[in-house]
Input
Amino acid sequence: MTLPRISDLGFGIRRILAPNPSMMTGPGTNTYLLGREDVAVIDPGPALPEHLERICAEAGRIRWIFVTHTHPDHSPGAAVLAKQTGAELIGMPPPATSHQDQSFEPDWQLDDGHSLETTEFELVAVHTPGHASNHVCYHHLESNWLITGDHVIDGSTVVINPPDGNMRDYIRSLERVLELGVDAILPGHGERIDEPDKIVQWIIDHRLAREEKVVAAFRKRVTASAAELVPDVYADVPEHLHGWAERSLLAHLIKLVEDGRAAENSRQFSWLENR
Output
């Protein structure tokens, strides 16, 4: 997938694509600019000078910098951009786990349901833990579009990586998106999603179907680790991706424990339901 570096999406929203394509980021991280006079930046991405310069050149006066979560491909540019512009940093602090941008220190936290209202737009925070415990989507009311970071992305599912990632929370947060009834999704990676309810329901169904594969693999064993179950549960996934698949499989196993269907001891899992 090839995306233009800068796109005008309508409703005063522009997208700037960060030059960080990879297996995990697709074409790169999407940075969104909201408004034309007092501008909000959402997810400035990695601290790449070329990208931050493009944001400043395109945005004009930046008043606010939001992040959806503090993974390294979404938020490290925030602190640098705030220092350059004097803009306020808004989001949830990083958890004390690995793979988090500890440089992000928000000036204020937009709690679930709270909003920023300007003369051009109103943005409402929707706390969506799962991919990350501090993940927040932003509902742009004028367009009825939802800016989703890594909660929903275009063309793929996301890794749920414990201990900060939580599969049970993730599915509940996807159901929360369905309740909003948005008209489109602006993902952290890829193109705008114009059938959001259809795609979100597909993700929920896909995750629950994967969980049933975990259950089926489990029934063949007395106990098992996530690594032992990967070949059965992710037989449809290329072997070079099995390391990442194991992380999401572990999240499924933890969910089964939380649901009372399995038990865990030192990352060995035992099935509790009738065989």
